[in-house]
Amino acid sequence: MSRLVAGPLLLAAVSGVATPAWAAERGGVALNIPAGRLVDAIVAIGRQGGVNVATTVSGLGAMRTKGVKGRLTIEAAFARLLADTGLVAVRIGPDAFRIERAAPPRPRQPPPAPSRPVPPPLVSPSLLAEPAPDVIVTAGKQRSPLDRYPGAAAVVWFDTPALRNAGARGTAALVDELPVLTSTSLGPGREKLFLRGIADSSFSGSSQATVGQYLGEVQLNYNAPDPDLSLYDMERVEILEGPQGTLYGAGSLGGVARLIPHQPKPGVWEGSVQAALGATWHGGVGSDVAGVLNIPLWQGAAVRLLGYGSRSPGYIDDVQRGLNDVNDTRKFGARGAFRFEPGDHWSVEVGGAFQSIRNNDAQYTEATGRPLSRATPIAEPSESRFYLAHITVRKLWDDGKELVSSVALVHNQQATIYDASKPTGIPATAAYSLNDALLLTSETRLSRLLPDGTGWVVGAHVTASDDQMLYLIGDDDTLAFLRGVRSYVLDSALFGQTTVEIAPRLQLTVGGRLSAIRLRGFQILPTRDELKLDFVTNDRDTVVFAPGAAMTWRANDAFIGYIRYQRGYRVGGYAVVPFGEGGNVGVTAFRPDTLDVIEGGVRFGTQTSKLTGSIGVSTARWRNIQADLTGPDGPFTANVGDGHVNGLELTANWQARAGINLSGSMFLADSDLDRPARDTVMRCRQSLPNVPAVTARIGADYRKVFPSGRTLTLGLGARYVGRSWVGVGPRLRVPQGNYVQTNALAEYRFGRYKVFVDMRNLFDSKGNRFSVGNLLQTGNLGQRTPLEPRSVRIGIAAGF
């Protein structure tokens, strides 16, 4: 896949459509690069010429070109394209170039000695957790080069062997790649994500998420679980470890995960289709299909459309109902964006997305029965629907300033059925949990980034959230509404951050966010005719300041060190305990929580280094931890006390030789709820939930380019997840984890086509991912969510 990494922009061409680079060496390739922005023309050369292109030069989006047409070598094409721009293209490998500023004339010197040829960069290392300096972290809202970002961050490319064919798997594919990222295993569309060991609980309830998830400029979640968007037509994901209170505000305690999709491309017709079939040992058969189409409209305008659908096979049997493979999942969705560039470096993008997930039954088994089975009188399905609409306006200036203004509306609906036979004593009784979350966000910011990495950003942000959670019980004929709670949050904030150079190679970053938060809660009481907002339970107005400071020391181009302090926070809220006795149920309030983190680390290696990597350490103090819990009376939310999380992160990537890439990463965590709240019962000191002491991953990729231009890619990987606990307190002190999962892949590309094979859990290992199934029976030591058995998926894709 061709890739451009450009100073203020970071784009990627669609895979499967590029002409192999070897053709350029034997007479050139046919190029048709229209006039327009220089950055788009460079992307087009990378795509049409089959080469990787990297640059740290800023301002490419503001430069124009007359275009290039004809059969040319790549060098000749770049020479014409960059004429009179002050830029040159330097070959850094057989299929890789770097765009840089032309050096001024120098005195005559003796000719240099011949240099060793640089090995070609791989199509994609399996993990670019701390990649080369050319990578730009746009999630920092200043488009800062990663080698200058003062904190732990990761950029994962979707053109890596492990991810480019894994769009149907959604967020689970990212969790497998990043040890610092973990999740629960309740089922697609129901998961909670955790970064850096900042994990509050195993359940989704009234508390705000700890990880802020974004699609471009759009915030995807607030009081809702991970929407688990399918990852088709994505360019990369940027991970900023938290807290990120200064730039992102509430709900970013653990950090931010920002998905970057491919943008509509004016003047270019392109697209791709992909289809695959899969089978699971001890289970059923699944399939997935997706299609992407980029349609140019008029000058400077285009629309990009994506549609997809998948069925993940089940592998759990229900012996009481006599059914096999009950836990299959069906997902379908669409995404679209319209982009218009009217001129003078303005752009407008309007887009939307929809996704539906249906889990036909729960994912857990019972240890008392045969393997991969359980016995329940009723099905426990869940369903989620996700809607998104947004508009983003952007303006670039030649001096590095950028204005971004966006408005987005997100609607997330969740419905889950639980078997309530045991807690109610009534056979075959169902309990229903319904969550409806509406999120409106708006942000306007102005930033400037200078070539030396200094700069600033200022902005204003408004979030309006309307979240409603309801509980019902019974069957279709006797369905009864119990209770519910509704919360309104209005969060208005001003934020700013600046980076200055205080000494040679030493930069200081300081910033802060001032938020005014208004919280309103309502209890929804049972009525005969309708759900009624009966009375206001409480009102809260809060002003929060989240400061941040960091220092970055750049020893040389291949080594950077940093130290950082940051505060994060979550707003308080309201929860309801629905299944209590004697009518003693209703709405309860929980307080805001705060997280303070000090971290330090180093990154080493450059774009051409064989060995790159990072080391980071962090210590976090978490006060008034909010946690979604469950007890005999049902799920509820409370503050469980104060705790700490200490972490050590290690990543490494080694290009051992041409075509072979080895990678590894590890996250070590030490967590403790050291000051439990008064009403939190603990028999011993406990770790925070869902925080394994060790999470690690290793991988190896091999890529062979044949003389015909066809390519073969092979990959192997293994992931270890250490032991963790479901929650705090004697009822939730249930172990989980401590397993190894392996995978393998193969891909063969020929022209515009490719075939691929993915295998997961090669050795059909057994393991317990998550000791939760039915939230009304949590603490049952027999409940466990098993590793998916060995599975094989075979697919084909074509691009044009």
Q: What features would you highlight for this structure?
A:
mainly beta, 56% strand, 22-stranded antiparallel beta barrel, 800 residues, globular, 5 helices, Phage tail protein beta-alpha-beta fold, Maltoporin, Chain A
Explain this structure to me?
The chain has 2 domains: 1-105 and 113-121, Phage tail protein beta-alpha-beta fold; 255-799, Beta Barrel (Maltoporin, Chain A), CATH 2.40.170.20. Mean pLDDT is 84; it is low at 1-26, 106-134 and 528-537. 4% of the residues lie in helices and 56% in strands. Strand 41 and strand 42 (660-676) form a beta hairpin. It has a 22-stranded antiparallel β-barrel. A 5-stranded mixed β-sheet has the order 2-1-5-9-8, with helices on one face. Strands 12-17-18-15-16 form a 5-stranded mixed β-sheet, with no helix packed on it. It has 5 helices and 49 strands. Helix 1 packs antiparallel against helix 2. It has 800 residues and is mostly beta strands.
Number of strands: 49
Total domain modules: 2
- Largest beta-sheet characterization: 22 strands, antiparallel, barrel
- The helix/strand class is mainly beta
Q: Give the overall silhouette.
A: globular
Secondary structure elements and pairings:
Elements: E1 3-5, E2 10-12, E3 29-33, E4 36-37, H1 38-49, E5 52-55, E6 64-65, E7 68-72, H2 74-81, E8 87-93, E9 96-101, E10 136-137, E11 144-145, E12 153-157, H3 171-177, E13 181-183, E14 193-195, E15 211-215, E16 218-219, E17 234-241, H4 245-248, E18 255-261, E19 270-280, E20 285-296, E21 301-312, E22 317-318, E23 329-343, E24 346-359, E25 365-366, E26 373-374, E27 382-396, E28 401-419, H5 421-424, E29 430-449, E30 455-473, E31 480-503, E32 506-525, E33 532-556, E34 559-570, E35 573-576, E36 587-590, E37 593-604, E38 611-623, E39 626-631, E40 634-639, E41 641-657, E42 660-676, E43 694-705, E44 711-725, E45 735-750, E46 753-760, E47 768-770, E48 783-786, E49 791-799
